[in-house]
């Protein structure tokens, strides 16, 4: 990126708004803690699928589905990514409502470094010395948290690995972020809707079942909270240099960490702080190295981020 590059303000604010929304999402899901996590995920699938499909019809007409049918291999792979993102959503919402927001934020801190490791293992990419140092520091942080806290930070690792695998497949497919979410929603919509109907008929549902209009509205608007940040992100990455987007992405886990520690009152003892510190140091090395490399080459296309 040259020093003379002008940054589109609308794109910049679109990126910032998206990452802030993702970072504050724990507060939203926490308001729904009376609803089982599985049902929250099912509602998230149904309402976001409807909203994204409507957006695609308005912006692209019926042609958006023909674009997918023209690439049957991509359509099949999006079925796999739909399962990965559903797992990621479910684990994250469960973590929030089980009091593990801080560990959830850790998953999105280490995600960029997990992406690097997958690039080496799957795409046969090679790491430079700075990237090896970054990965080693993050691994040391995870090892320290495992020893100090007496258990593997499996929530963080589950979130990071599932989202990294999701991002890797979406990178290989090179499908537009919103279009891809629309196809994933199409795969998941009918099973999710059928499950919700069954839960309501069996008396286990929490939608229009006496829990109050506020809960019903929160469940519906959860679909908008899924789709709107992604649409804003897709808008931003076409207008803002990738290196800047890469730095801005840490707004999200930082806000999640602050929400967990300062608002929801989760413990953040010294032992955990040291483990986070090693991971943050690794990220700093990774970010500086990425910035240095960006000065010598054109920015790469961004991969979609969904929470």
From TrEMBL:
Chief localisation class: membrane
Record-linked Pfam families: EamA
Keyword Transcription: no
Membrane spanning residue stretches: 12-29, 41-62, 74-94, 106-123, 130-146, 152-169, 181-199, 211-236, 248-268, 274-291
Cellular localisation: Cell membrane
Topology of the protein relative to the lipid bilayer: Multi-pass membrane protein
Record bears the keyword Chaperone: no
GO cellular component assignments: plasma membrane
Domain EamA, first and last residues per copy: 11-146
Entry similarity comment: Belongs to the EamA transporter family.
Protein name, as recorded: Membrane protein
Originating species: Lysobacter daejeonensis GH1-9
């Amino acid at each position: 990126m040259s020093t003379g590059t002008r940054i589109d303000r609308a794109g910049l604010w679109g990126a910032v708004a998206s990452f802030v929304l993702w970072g504050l999402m724990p507060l939203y899901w926490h308001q729904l803690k009376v609803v089982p996590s599985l049902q929250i995920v099912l509602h998230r699938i149904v309402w976001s699928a409807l909203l994204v499909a409507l957006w695609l019809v308005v912006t692209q007409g019926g042609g958006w589905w023909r674009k997918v049918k023209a690439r049957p291999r991509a359509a099949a792979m999006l079925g796999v990514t739909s399962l990965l993102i559903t797992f990621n959503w479910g684990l994250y919402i469960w973590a929030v409502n089980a009091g593990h927001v801080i560990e959830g934020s850790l998953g999105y801190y280490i995600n960029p470094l997990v992406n690097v490791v997958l690039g080496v293992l799957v795409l046969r990419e090679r790491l430079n010395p700075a990237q090896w140092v970054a990965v080693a520091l993050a691994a040391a942080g995870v090892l320290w948290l495992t020893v100090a806290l007496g258990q593997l930070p499996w929530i963080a690792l589950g979130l990071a690995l599932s989202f990294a695998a999701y991002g890797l497949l979406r990178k290989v497919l090179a499908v537009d972020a919103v279009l891809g979410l629309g196809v994933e929603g199409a795969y998941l919509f009918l099973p999710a809707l059928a499950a919700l109907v069954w839960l309501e008929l069996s008396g286990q549902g929490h939608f229009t079942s006496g829990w109050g209009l506020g809960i019903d509205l929160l469940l519906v608007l959860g679909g908008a909270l899924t789709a709107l940040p992604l649409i804003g992100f897709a808008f931003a990455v076409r207008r803002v240099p990738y290196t800047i987007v890469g730095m801005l992405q840490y707004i999200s886990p930082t806000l999640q960490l602050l929400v967990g520690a300062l608002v929801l009152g989760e413990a953040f003892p010294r032992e955990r702080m040291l483990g986070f510190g090693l991971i943050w140091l690794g990220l700093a090395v990774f970010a500086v190295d990425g910035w240095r490399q960006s000065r010598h080459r054109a920015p790469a296309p961004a991969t979609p981020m969904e929470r």
